[in-house]
Amino acid sequence: MNQQLTVNVITNMYQQYPAVFRRPLKQRLVRWLIWTGFTAFTVYCLAQLGFFDVGMIAEGLGKLYGVVSFMLPPAAHGRFLDFLWAIFETLGMAFIGTLLAALIALPMGFLGSKNVIGHPVFHFVLRRLFDFIRGIDALIWALVWINVVGLGPFAGILAIACSVSGELAKIFSEAIENVDRKQIDGVRASGANTIQTMRFAILPQVFPVILSTSLYYFESNTRSATILGIVGAGGIGLQLADRIRVLAWDQAALIIIMILVTVYLIDTMSNRIRHHFIKAPEIQR
C-alpha cells in the first residue's frame, strides 16, 4: 500500500514538474555528443575496413562456401596418429608454459602489491615491468625465441611463459591488494613474520583467484599454442598450417575438430578441478 502510494506521488510530481526530473541541458548535450562521436567513429571504421563493399563481401562468401565444401567430410588419410601426437605436443606446450608463467607470476604478484611492499618507486617500476612483459604478444615472443633456441615446442613454451607471466602477475597483484585486511592484522598480531603472513593470511584468500585464472589461461594457451605452431613452434598448429598450405581442407577440418574437442575437455576438467579445490557446489552443464 505504501509502495503504491509512493509511486503515485512520484508519478503526479513528474506530470506536474517534468523539468525537475529532466537532465540539465549541458548533460544532455554532452551525452548526445559522446554518442554521436561514437557512432560516427564506428561508421568510419566500418567504411575504411570494407564492411560496406557488398561486392567484396558477396565474393568472400562464395569463396567461404567453396572452402567449407572442400572440408566436408573431414578425413585423416592415414595421418590421424600424427595429428593426435601433435595435439599432445600442443597440450604439453600449453601446460608447461602456463605452469612456468604461474610460478613466475606468484612471487611477482606479491612483490607488486601495495599491501605487501608499499614503497611507491619499487611498486611503480615493477608494475611497468608487468606492462612491458604482457604488452608483447605471445606470437612476437615466439618469433624471438625461435631465433634464440630454434624451431620446436621449447620456443613455444618460453613464448607462453613470457607473455602470460606478466598478465598473471598483474591479476595476482590486484587480487592480493583486495584481500581482507582484518585477517592480515590477526595473523601479524599472533607474531607471524612477513612470509608467514603471506602464507596464512593472504594466500588462502587469493587462492581461488589464482587457481581459476591459471586454469583459464591453460585453456586459452592451448589455443594460443596452436597459433604459435603455425610460426614454427611445433604442435598441432604446424600440422594445420601444412594442411592448409597444400589445400588439404578435409584434413584441416579434422584438425580443427580435434582442437575444439581438446579445448572442451580441458574446460570440463578445469571446471571439476576448480570446484574440487574451492569447494563450491557443482554446476550442471
Plain-language structure description:
With 285 residues, the chain is mainly α. The protein contains twelve helices and no strands. The longest helix has 40 residues.
Summarize this entry quickly.
With 285 residues, the chain is mainly α. It has helices at residues 2-16, 18-21, 25-48, 54-71, 80-111, 120-135, 138-149, 153-177, 181-189, 194-233, 236-245, 249-278.
Task: Give the helices and strands, then pairings.
Layout: H1 2-16, H2 18-21, H3 25-48, H4 54-71, H5 80-111, H6 120-135, H7 138-149, H8 153-177, H9 181-189, H10 194-233, H11 236-245, H12 249-278
Helix pairs in contact: 4-12, 5-8, 5-10, 5-11, 6-8, 7-8, 7-10, 8-10, 9-10, 10-11, 10-12, 11-12
In oligomeric terms, what are we looking at?
single chain
Question: Biggest β-sheet: count, sense, barrel?
Answer: none
Fourth-level CATH superfamily of the domain at 84-278: MetI-like
- Structural class based on helices, strands and sheet pairing: mainly alpha
Extended strand count: 0
* Count of helical regions: 12
CATH topology category name of the domain at 84-278 = MetI-like fold
Distance between the termini: 42 Å
Proportion in helices:
over 70%
pLDDT averaged residue by residue: 84
Question: What general outline do the C-alpha atoms trace?
Answer: extended
Q: Per CATH, which architecture of the domain at 84-278?
A: Orthogonal Bundle
Radius of gyration, in Å, reads 27 Å
Percent of residues in β-strands: under 5%
| Highest CATH level, the class of the domain at 84-278 | Mainly Alpha
Low-confidence region ranges? 280-285
Along the chain, the helix and strand elements come as HHHHHHHHHHHH
